[in-house]
Amino acid sequence: MAYSEDHIMLAAEYALGTLDAAERAQVETMMAVDGDYAALVQAWEFRLGPLNQMVGLVEPRPELWERIKAEIAASRPKPAAAPAPESIAPADMTVSAAADPPPAAVPEVSSASTAEAGAELSSAPTAEAAQVEAPVAPPEIAAASPTAPTSSENAGADDARDEATVVYLSFRVRQWRAVANAMTAIAAALLALVAVQVYRPDLLPQVLQPKPRIQTVEVKVPTAPQSSAQLVALLQKDAASPAFILTVDAASKSYTVRRVGAAPEPGKSYELWLVSDKLQRPRSLGVIGGSDFTSRPVLSAYDADTVNRATYAVTVEPEGGSPTGMATGPIVFTGKLIETVPPAR
Predict the structure, then answer these.
(1) Which domains does the chain have, with CATH numbers?
(2) Distance CA 281, CA 336 (A)
(3) pLDDT(149) > 70
(4) Which of 113, 268, 315, 324 is most buried by a 10 A CB count?
(5) Measured distance CA(52)–CA(41) in Å, rounded
(6) Alpha-carbon distance 256 to 229, whole Å?
């Protein structure tokens, strides 16, 4: 059966013993008529039972009891002053004097009349006789009659209530102190467990030891710069007379021409050409300058196979190069590329 949160809290506080008398009576009535609720209370007692074994009862200090009694005595109402006995005597005497007729007013009666009067009085209603015979009490006497509670009786009732309040409060204080001590012990145990898990996890059982955290770190190793292939061609007329050395960088598609044995011709310029079967005509790679080294990045327009397999030729052209874009002078030096430095693997 599903119970509300209030009913569950009542069961838990009943197991702790923190309910007052009315609430405990309510829980016990529910337990008597509902077996499931009794099982719920028993389950709470089983859970909270170890708390009573962890801590003991703590009695309050004696001076605390003295302070509580002093506070109760200070808040107790003052008893009313009792009427003095002298105030009752005059009234009593007045009533007696008023009730008893003077001796001179009593007539003499015979024995027969006395017997008849006694019979009439015996046959009269008891209530009327009681009304005639009961003397009228003055206000002072009515106030002091046993039927009304006296100030001493009121003071005794106040003392009983105060004692019951003190006992109840001390009982609740002991209960809450026990609960506070239990919660403190549990918090200290949890703190110690966390500290051991952080600093000395090897002291804990295998079940309580924290699982090791595995973190994968990827380290990128910088790659060394790869050297590109270097291609060289010896441009010459014959094997005994090299004229130029052509060096080609395969990565940047640039070439460098170094003058070796070619002598400059006045009014003329040497021009480098690329000759390949894949091209319809030779392509000019520029004029070779008058200095020892000439570099130009003009091979990027051709694929690597064409650059590697082509024949490189040098012609003598008018100063500044061929005016038509085609070779006009004779071919004086030729050569093909060979690989001197292989590309890095």
Answers:
(1) 5-54 (no CATH), 230-341 (2.60.40)
(2) 17
(3) no
(4) 315
(5) 16
(6) 14
